[in-house]
């Protein structure tokens, strides 16, 4: 019997406890409402864009918040655990002994990949909206690079507030002030 066969629940949705038995095979295992999402390891453009955004946010975060990267997870129930590529959380919501954030972060960021594009644009976006993530950013590493920004409105629904490409600037005010230029997040892909 393979490891994977032994952890697949029969006749019930997946739970976060089931994630502990998943193989350490380089895939990312996440849950939304008991549904298992499996994503392969990201490619270089995905990693470059996410890492550079993490660096830019870390340079500017104010007291009281922290910037973290996957595989740090957001676990808001026994049937849901997701790993945003980058997240911003309140310091007070973090626990040094935990590998999970138990509440919605202030910002969740997903970097699109061919294998995750539909999940990030639909399923994860709906999940982040439902759990109350105030800001959701989607980065696309396809040249020239882009950033799409959603923020919760007064009814708790996401509204797109910005879309910038290439050398266009986005000046964020939430969760803190920072200027992001998508093309600059991809500079590491070029020699120099």
From TrEMBL:
It comes from the Bacteria. It holds the Pfam family Uma2. InterPro entries: Nuclease_put_TT1808, Restrct_endonuc-II-like, Uma2. Transmembrane segments: none annotated. GO terms for molecular function: endonuclease activity. Keywords: Endonuclease, Hydrolase, Nuclease. This is Uma2 family endonuclease. It comes from Pseudonocardia charpentierae.
